[in-house]
Write a structure and sequence with these properties.
transmembrane helix, 18 helices, 5 strands, two-stranded antiparallel ribbon, Glycosyltransferase RgtA/B/C/D-like domain-containing protein, mainly alpha, 3-stranded parallel sheet, 456 residues
Length: 456
């Protein structure tokens, strides 16, 4: 158990500090939107994103007066609470630690994004549902707590609706079996209170903003339907892979061949994981595992379908985060229940933990330095109301040399593109400024263009 304690501490430390060594500090375009909503509180002007994450950011901002630091403190608290709770409650501590070696938690907790708190509440949703099925006492209390976790997920991300839908479909499919157990009424209570909470918030959105999920502020999907569909299929199936993630933005031949190979690997993983899933039938937590698997499938498909009607990211690690955690956590529980040794899973997990750490530092940057440089210039642009990246065509590439084979190749690192880097830093320093996807503002003097900022 000592090795898991050490890995848990390493996870907390690395997750907190790594963004400081990434050029943009883990701050993307969505992060700026969350910061902007947080500054508007208590009178939000948009429901493009739910209010939950901005509220958490604002609470921490009141103490540290810095949204970047607020996001880092939140991630630190999320990781410490999950691992600390798991250890002291003896709730699958080994399994919980290994979750932090996978691609999903590594990605969401080093970024300033809503997936962090979303996964945090999902983890505790697992706990209360697990207790509901596992223990004979406190079933109604656990059902109420589980509904609070699910409502909290909706307040963080609108895709919490898909988690609810996944649970609902799973319960309908298992209805005849669950009806015969003492979990039936608590489950109905869970569904009822979750449904009321979710509906109430969406109704509030409609009455206050005039839209349910900010649909009036979202763009239509981009063109290129065929290749978009193929990449999304690869990304959707990749939700079963605990360690290897896809960045399916490229359509080059080498990239598509790589994605195809990962797709074949993922199909093999489905067969392997399903072997453990079938073993759950003999256990007391059969319903728990079935619900997690069905929820993961429904969540993934619903997000994919959403992409046909609005402009969202392709089915990458971020979009499939919740589905991947459902599958991975279920697998880890079943693995330790059915295997006498953790040798292989431990070695593989540690290998990928090191890989993910090094991969994120493959082209390291100094966020605090970049922030300091931009901060010294922002006073000149205090009257600007909009922020636009007008340097999208300026591409910075890093060249990698392989002496043994006498080959080299160039790679475009998203975090090192000067325009987007300036945009993320400037937006975090002045979160009230509104970043623009397109340069549509007529009064150009109100726009801060990234070309006006110097980073070197």
């Amino acid at each position: 158990m000592l090795k898991y304690k050490i890995l848990a501490v390493l996870s907390v430390v690395i997750y907190f500090f790594q963004p400081f060594f990434i050029a943009n500090g883990g701050i993307g375009a969505d992060s700026l939107s969350y910061f902007e909503i947080a500054t508007d509180l208590p009178y939000p002007e948009t429901n493009l994103f739910p209010i939950g994450y901005p509220v958490l950011l604002r609470l921490l901002y009141e103490f540290c007066n810095d949204y970047f630091l607020a996001s880092r403190i939140l991630s630190l608290l999320f990781t410490m609470i999950i691992l600390g709770f798991s250890y002291y409650k003896r709730f699958y501590f080994r399994e919980s630690v290994l979750l932090f070696t996978g691609k999903t938690l590594f990605f969401v907790f080093i970024q300033a994004m809503s997936e962090g708190p979303f996964i945090f509440f999902l983890y505790f949703l697992f706990y209360f549902l697990h207790e509901l099925f596992q223990n004979d006492k406190g079933k109604y209390a656990n059902a109420l707590y589980a509904s609070l976790m699910l409502i909290s997920m909706l307040l963080i991300r609108y895709s919490g609706v898909y988690i609810f839908l996944g649970f609902l479909i799973a319960i309908v499919l298992l209805f005849s079996k669950i009806k015969k157990t003492n979990c039936f009424k608590p489950i109905l209570l869970f569904v009822f209170f979750s449904g009321v909470g979710i509906t109430s918030y969406l109704l509030f959105n409609y009455l206050y903003f005039g839209s349910v999920v900010g649909e009036n502020e979202r763009a239509l999907p981009e063109s290129g339907l065929s290749i978009y569909t193929i990449r999304n299929i690869f990304g959707l199936v990749n939700l079963v892979n605990p360690f290897i993630g896809l960045k399916p933005a490229s359509v080059s031949l080498p990239s598509m061949i790589f994605q195809l190979l990962i797709f074949i690997l993922d199909v093999g993983l489905i067969v392997y994981l399903f072997k453990y899933y079938k073993k759950a039938k003999a256990g007391r937590l059969y319903f728990f595992h079935v619900i997690l698997w069905i929820t993961a499938l429904v969540y993934g498909i619903c997000l994919w379908v959403s992409g046909w009607f609005q402009q969202i990211e392709e089915m990458n690690v971020r979009m499939m985060a919740a589905a991947n955690i459902c599958i991975f956590f279920s697998f880890l529980i079943l693995y330790f229940e059915n295997e006498s040794s953790d040798k292989w899973i431990w070695r593989i997990a540690c290998l990928f933990f090191v890989f993910h750490t090094l991969y994120n530092l493959k082209d390291p940057g100094d966020y605090l330095k970049n922030r300091s440089i931009i901060k010294s210039q922002m006073f000149k642009f205090k009257d600007k109301k909009y922020l636009y990246n007008d340097e999208k065509n300026l591409v910075t590439k890093t060249t990698y040399h392989f002496p043994l084979i006498r080959k080299s190749f160039e790679y475009k690192h998203t975090n090192k593109q000067k325009g987007s880097l300036k945009e993320s830093v400037a937006g975090s320093l002045n979160p009230k400024i509104k970043w623009l996807l397109n340069d549509t503002v007529k009064i150009k003097s109100k726009v801060l263009y990234t070309s006006q900022l110097k980073i070197d």
